Structure formats: structure tokens, C-alpha cells
């Protein structure tokens, strides 16, 4: 497998995990926290996509990008300490925000394949959050 195929395989596997976890609260509302926890870990990890490029080059460091990456990281971790539905709403906002900031600051240095994959994954993750939150129309856990 080529590096692109490997990246696609693991990325789509991760997206599938979001959808499996988004379906759990449709079985039992109390399971919605599993998606929140997984999502928080992934968003905190993705914050490194801004932090590393922001601090790598000593001549072109961008403190705004590094600060934003840390804010996203801390916000993702904060969702562990709030109701699952509220955490999911905040995380659902965090993914497109991170996607947008990454494009603004580093998009020119990214390949078209990577940008397209990130778009697919970001909006797929948002859809999974919407699916899980829709389960709450049946009540609250």
C-alpha cells in the first residue's frame, strides 16, 4: 500500500468509529458519553496539526497559531468535565474551527489530497455528532 492509501485507510477507519459511537445513544442514551470521550481525544490530538507547524520554524513562528492549538487542546479536554450533550456541541464546533484555521495558516503547504481528505473527515465527524445529538430528542441520559 502506498502512503496515501495507508492514510486513507486509517482515516476512514477513524471516521467509521465516529459513526459507530454516534449510533450507540440510539440504543441507550447513557452511551452518548463514549462519542464525547473519543471525540475529545481526537480533537486534542488534531490540535497538534496547528501547534507543530506553528513552532517548527524559528524564523516564521506564529504565536497565534500555537496559542489557538493550545486553546483547542484545552477546550477538548474541558469537555470531559461537562454534560455529554454540551461537550458534543462544543466538539462539533471545534472540528470545523480547527479545519478552517489549518487552511488559513498552513493550507498552501498542504497537498490537495490532504486538504480534500481533511474536509471529508471534518464534515463527516460533524455529521456523526449531529446524529448522536439527534438521539437526545428521545429524552436525556
UniProtKB/TrEMBL annotation:
<feature type="transmembrane region" description="Helical">
    <location>
        <begin position="7"/>
        <end position="26"/>
    </location>
</feature>
<keyword id="KW-0472">Membrane</keyword>
<dbReference type="InterPro" id="IPR021836">
    <property type="entry name" value="DUF3429"/>
</dbReference>
<feature type="transmembrane region" description="Helical">
    <location>
        <begin position="120"/>
        <end position="137"/>
    </location>
</feature>
<dbReference type="Pfam" id="PF11911">
    <property type="entry name" value="DUF3429"/>
</dbReference>
<feature type="transmembrane region" description="Helical">
    <location>
        <begin position="67"/>
        <end position="100"/>
    </location>
</feature>
<keyword id="KW-0812">Transmembrane</keyword>
<keyword id="KW-1133">Transmembrane helix</keyword>
<protein>
    <recommendedName>
        <fullName>DUF3429 domain-containing protein</fullName>
    </recommendedName>
</protein>
<feature type="transmembrane region" description="Helical">
    <location>
        <begin position="38"/>
        <end position="55"/>
    </location>
</feature>
Amino acid at each position: 500500500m502506498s502512503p496515501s492509501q495507508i492514510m486513507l485507510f486509517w482515516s476512514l477507519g477513524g471516521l467509521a468509529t465516529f459513526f459507530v459511537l454516534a449510533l450507540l445513544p440510539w440504543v441507550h442514551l447513557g452511551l452518548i458519553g463514549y462519542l464525547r470521550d473519543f471525540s475529545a481525544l481526537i480533537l486534542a490530538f488534531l490540535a497538534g496539526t496547528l501547534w507543530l507547524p506553528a513552532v517548527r520554524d524559528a524564523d516564521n513562528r506564529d504565536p497565534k497559531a500555537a496559542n489557538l492549538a493550545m486553546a483547542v487542546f484545552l477546550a477538548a479536554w474541558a469537555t470531559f468535565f461537562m454534560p455529554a450533550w454540551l461537550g458534543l456541541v462544543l466538539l462539533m464546533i471545534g472540528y470545523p474551527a480547527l479545519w478552517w484555521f489549518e487552511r488559513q495558516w498552513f493550507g498552501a503547504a498542504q497537498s490537495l489530497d490532504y486538504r480534500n481528505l481533511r474536509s471529508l473527515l471534518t464534515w463527516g465527524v460533524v455529521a456523526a455528532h449531529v446524529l448522536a445529538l439527534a438521539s437526545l430528542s428521545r429524552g436525556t441520559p
